[in-house]
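A.,

Following up on our hallway conversation. Structure tokens first:
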């Protein structure tokens, strides 16, 4: 039965004490920059010191997520060079002859290259199959946008022209009414003037 990543890691790397305080406290954390295991207390201090607070610290059960090309075996202190396909963790040469004897192994460089090839094939497939369709959709969307903008601009222009025409009509009506009012005023004033002249002594 295959082991989980966490079970495989525990199986491969036996209990390790803290590298800083050198006590028997279990090294539950791992500093990627210092390549040291840390107990909970030292991890707390390590993450607050100005010189080390920027270091990448993870739980030891998450070591399989670290870049294994710079990882050393906690149990044997050697660079990891293999990947155990059964336990799904990186291991060193000494682990091969102990906890992982008989397990199917992969060279890490080969594994990295294999994953890189898979990723490159995926990218190539995306570029060949997906991107053209996306580019077509983008072009169609751009054309639809331009068409929409032209139609709205035309409607706006027509509204402005109609508004201008209405203003001209209103101005004409207002001028005519004003002229008529002035004519009525002048006519009425003449009537008043004539009446005044008749009543003069």
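Then the amino acids I'd put at each of the 201 positions:
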């Amino acid at each position: 039965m295959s082991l989980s990543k966490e079970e495989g890691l525990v199986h491969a790397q036996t209990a390790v004490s803290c590298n800083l305080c050198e006590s028997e406290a279990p090294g539950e954390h791992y500093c990627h920059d210092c390549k040291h295991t840390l107990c909970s207390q030292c991890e707390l201090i390590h993450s607050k010191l100005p010189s080390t607070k920027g270091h990448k610290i993870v739980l030891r059960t998450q070591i399989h997520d670290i870049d294994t090309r710079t990882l050393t075996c906690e149990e044997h202190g050697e660079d990891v060079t293999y990947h155990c396909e059964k336990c799904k963790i990186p291991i060193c040469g000494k682990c091969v002859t102990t906890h992982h004897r008989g397990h199917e192994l992969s060279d890490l460089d080969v594994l990295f290259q294999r994953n890189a090839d898979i990723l490159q094939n995926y990218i190539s497939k995306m570029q060949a199959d997906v991107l053209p369709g996306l580019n077509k959709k983008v072009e169609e969307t751009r054309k639809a946008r331009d068409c929409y903008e032209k139609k709205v601009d035309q409607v706006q222009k027509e509204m402005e022209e109609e508004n201008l025409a209405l203003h001209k009509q209103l101005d004409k009506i207002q001028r005519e009414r004003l002229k008529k009012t002035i004519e009525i005023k002048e006519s009425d004033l003449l009537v008043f003037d004539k009446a005044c002249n008749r009543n003069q002594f």
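The beta strands are 29-31, 36-38, 57-59, 82-84, 89-91, 105-107. Curious whether your intuition agrees with the design.

B.
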